[in-house]
DNA sequence: AGTTTGTCACCTAGGTGGCAAAGT
DNA sequence: ACTTTGCCACCTAGGTGACAAACT
């Protein structure tokens, strides 16, 4: 039960950490386990079920009081949803690429004085490989998934820290980078291009007890935001995604044509979205 | 004995921390306690005693084994000495200014598995206020020191961390900023302009014992590098200092005139330094 | 007269998508 | 045919000293 699943090494802004004996994780990524009723390719927006306002913890056994009351709120939720309706794509590069939108959360209900580690991992949303049909502007299934790259986990660089510290302000995973390099030694998250993924967020109570391994399962709580799922790509496929990135990411401002779209407008009428395509 | 001296609050890259009960410091800055036989204004370079290669811990009582063996090595020592021979000046601004050279150290002899906090503070080198005589290119005593600003301490943002983590690579205090704003609420170090200061570096073992306050004095070790002392200024006084900053600080590259001084040359013949001036 | 402040041009450092070229 | 790579111009973000103006 003691994190056999996230093998390889651990990714953090502070450098690579040895697998921490005190941290424990839910089983991760190696096997295919769809977490949510993900409707993909993204259907007509109006028809899709709306994601919940606050993440649902993936329910499990009894939890330590230090984590049982923890609640997590996704920041930039409207932006995430805008992307998700179009079918979010995230660039992966050899050197590692940040996510946009950034994964940011507001945390509530921690024990102020207890130590926590915060981390993320990515699970495949299905067992398929995709390709994008430009003529129909739709994603198509292109076969079974490629072999899964080494599973990794990204610790927030400030881990471990007191609950008070984590709750003081929004927690941002802006040091997290995605790569398609199977041999990456920068501790980045390795993903298969043209595959679908679901980011997961884990709150781990750092148990001071000597036999803390025993309580591994009780000491963490995981959160999944369906609206953050995405397709990993080496180049954007859906032109609408490109345009929304340019419109909303400050670093892409150089590609904006005018001041008219100088800032992301969350309630822009999103007409003419690609229709659901046939899965072969 | 439990850090009464560094009052106010604590400065760290992670934000402002409540005074940590578990950390303990040597008495700091409020009272005037010259630490070293500092020869200032800087006399003829050849005549000055050379600073030691490795910092001398400020000797004290018995130490916890976790800190007793810790050794610290100053990085960019040659550059620090070059500045020190001219009489180092550090800019202070309302918004806060980084130090250049940066205070960076290599650490040896920590317990790999123990937790440590790393921090810095600044003690007045004397009880005087200075002014710079441009005609003679010399510093002169201009009276007694102004009232000491609130003493502060800068925790390295990665604190606390395991010994292994600290020793893995050079530790850099590049988030530390100096200000002259007595009302600063960014947690920066507050200094009096036209006064002389000695940076100090402290290694604090985070004692897991419940009654760790009892062992406060045993759990830290302090290091002082005489070559890092400086005068706080709001604008550079000695034109040679300005030129050396421009020549050696990458961020000031815009002020270099040619490629000839494109990089700092540590063994440049330092002729024509300002002579020792009369203290009134 | 001496010291401080604010603004500026000019850097470093690094995050964007575009695009042509190279892989496969 | 489809996907990946490398390089680029163009941004954000922020660290420099110069300098004129303001302060005291």
Automatic annotation (TrEMBL), chains A, B:
One of its GO terms (biological process) is anatomical structure morphogenesis. Residues 74-257 form the T-box domain. The keyword Lyase does not apply. It is found in: Nucleus. Its main location: nucleus. GO terms for molecular function: DNA-binding transcription factor activity, RNA polymerase II-specific; RNA polymerase II cis-regulatory region sequence-specific DNA binding. Keywords: DNA-binding, Nucleus, Transcription, Transcription regulation. One of its GO terms (cellular component) is nucleus. Residues 1-65 are annotated as: Disordered. Residues 37-53 have a biased composition (Low complexity). The keyword Nucleus applies. This is T-box transcription factor TBX10. It comes from Galemys pyrenaicus (Iberian desman). The chain holds residues 1 to 280 of 424 of the full protein.
């Amino acid at each position: 039960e003691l994190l056999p699943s996230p093998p390889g090494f651990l990714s953090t802004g502070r450098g690579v950490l040895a697998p921490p004996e005190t941290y424990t994780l839910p089983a991760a990524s190696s096997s295919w386990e769809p977490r949510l009723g993900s409707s993909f390719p993204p259907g007509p927006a109006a028809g899709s079920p709306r994601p919940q306002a606050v993440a649902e913890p993936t329910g499990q056994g009894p939890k330590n009081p230090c984590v049982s009351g923890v609640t997590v709120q996704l920041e930039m939720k409207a932006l995430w949803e805008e992307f998700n309706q179009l079918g979010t794509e995230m660039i992966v590069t050899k050197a590692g690429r940040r996510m946009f939108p950034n994964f940011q959360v507001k945390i509530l209900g921690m024990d102020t004085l207890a130590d926590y580690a915060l981390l993320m991992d990515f699970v495949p949303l299905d067992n398929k490989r995709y390709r994008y049909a430009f003529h129909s502007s739709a994603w198509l299934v292109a076969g079974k998934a490629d072999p899964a790259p080494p599973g990794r986990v990204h610790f927030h660089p400030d881990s471990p820290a007191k609950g008070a510290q984590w709750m003081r302000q929004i927690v941002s995973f802006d040091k997290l980078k995605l790569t398609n390099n199977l041999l990456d030694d920068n501790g980045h998250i390795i993903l298969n291009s043209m595959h679908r993924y679901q980011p997961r967020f884990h709150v781990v109570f750092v148990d001071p007890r000597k036999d803390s391994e025993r309580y591994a399962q009780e000491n963490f709580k995981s959160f999944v935001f369906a609206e953050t799922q995405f397709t990993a790509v080496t180049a954007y496929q859906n032109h609408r995604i490109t345009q929304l990135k340019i419109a909303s990411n400050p670093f892409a401002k150089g590609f904006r044509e005018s001041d008219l779209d100088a800032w992301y407008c969350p309630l822009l009428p999103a007409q003419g979205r690609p229709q659901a395509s046939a899965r072969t």
